[in-house]
Amino acid sequence: MTTSKKNIEVMLEIFCAIERRDQHRMFELVHSDAEFLWPPSLPYAEARKPKPGGPGWGATWIPLQPEEADRRLEPRVVASSDEEVVIHWQQKGVSSTGDRINTPVLGLYRLRDGKLARAQMFYFDPAAVVAFLSKAKAQAASATP
Which one, 69, 75, 80, 87, has least CB within 10 Å? Predict the structure, then answer.
């Protein structure tokens, strides 16, 4: 099997682990020094070196994905090489009052020695994501006694 195909397999397994909420498996496939780069406007942009249970994408999105359908990322490989894989996927979420978002993301993933070493995500509409997350946070805060 070519390195490019192995990289695709690793990345699709990472996406499956995220959808299953299997942090242990995901972090098995990610280098301990991996870097995650998000659009600067997103609230988890500072979480460049994620750790299990720490702040970042998961802490933001897991509460907003209560159903299996909300967790489906629908990854589609666009391109790959011996070092990188490009994947188009869907960022989904639902707020406590039922507001929804379903927006495309393009991720550029660099692999080293069969593990993810760097991920850079390009949201097609980061302003819509920021607006959704801000509204969802406000709704959750107002629902808490």
Answer: 69
**H or E stretch covering 142:** helix 126-143
Overall pTM surpassing 0.85 (yes/no): yes
Q: Tell me how crowded residue 14 is: count the other CB atoms within 10 A of its CB.
A: 25
Domain that holds residue 131: 3-143
Q: What is the DSSP string of 43-83?
A: TTTT--S--TTSSSHHHHHGGG--SHHHH----EEEEE-SS
Calculate the CA 114 to chain-centre distance: 19
> With the C-alpha atoms ordered 134, 139, 140, 145, is the resulting torsion angle positive or negative?
positive
Flag whether pLDDT at 5 surpasses 80. Answer: yes
The label of the residue with tokens 């760097």 reads 118
Task: Tell me what the mean pLDDT of segment 79-106 comes to.
Answer: 97
* Domain count within the chain: 1
Contacts of 88 (CB under 8 A, 6+ apart): 75, 76, 78, 104, 105, 106, 107
Integer Cα distance of 137 and 58 in angstroms: 15
pLDDT at 59 over 80: yes
